[in-house]
Amino acid sequence: MKSKWLTFLMFLSLALTMSCGKDYNALFQERVAQLNKEGKCILSQYNDYMGKEHYIVYMDDNKIVLDTLGDSTKVYPLGNIKRCFHYDLSADKNGKYRIEKCEQNDLNWDITTDNANKQLVFNDHYYHEDGLVIPYSELKVHKRDYILIQTEDNDIIFFLNKELDVLSSGSLSEIYETENGFRLNQRGNCQMLFEPGVIPWYYTDLWYGYSVFTDSHGNITGKSDSIEVLGVKIPISELGTPKVNEYVQKIILEASR
What is the pLDDT of residues 141-182, one digit of tens each? Predict the structure, then answer.
């Protein structure tokens, strides 16, 4: 008798749990219908019928919204953007070179939404002072991970993470989407990398390049182990050491041809 009573209680508990649980499929459909009725532009959406994952990414009044149907709603304001990051090759206080994520705080972008016309207006106060119009349909959206804005002079990624990290290609890098994230081909001027006098002053137009690989959230997953100048590869571990002079002589030979 006790066993039957225990079984009944377990069944009742399960039934109550199921009845009190959210019907995410219904909630999802209702939310999509509501956003469409309000004229909001949905950039990305996913509804797992098993209830494991569900989200809607959409544009609202000058902000990006990531709605997971009540579990958590992330709001990312646009407007004036002054901070983003890039991946830089530089030496630490011990003279050891490394590639790391660096903040860039000298931007002055205005990115505003025009929901009525379903477009962004981008003003960098330099190339696009009159405002570059980017239709929502031209944005590249990857699930709930990032939004990629591509302009003629710049590629900008908004990573939908805690801080809404902003990555800019600027004029010194190229951004390529990969299966698992991004490949960034970075470049810099040799005169800024080597000690004064290592590269003759008349080679001011020499540039070096390297690559950084990230996942879809902007985390570094791989880096170049060398920089390349005119086809000459210099191991990053040997930058700042006397060994680098051997590579510089090869670079000068290539530049003089």
Answer: 999 999 998 887 788 899 998 778 888 887 678 889 998 899
Q: Three-class SS string for 32-95?
A: HHHHHHCCCEEEEEEECCCCCCEEEEEEECCEEEEECCCCCEEEEECEEECCEEEEEEEECCCC
Secondary structure (3-state) at 150 = strand
Give how far Cα 226 sits from Cα of 96, 118, 218, 244, Å: 13, 44, 21, 12
Nearest Cα to Cα of residue 140 among 153, 151, 129, 124 = 151
C-alpha 185/C-alpha 26 separation (Å) is 45
Taking the C-alpha atoms of residue 105 and residue 181, their distance in angstroms, rounded to an integer, is 24
> Rounded to an integer, what distance in angstroms lies between the CA atom of residue 176 and that of residue 37?
36
pTM (whole model) above 0.85: no
> Alpha carbon of 162 to those of 21, 33, 145, 146: distances in Å?
27, 27, 11, 12
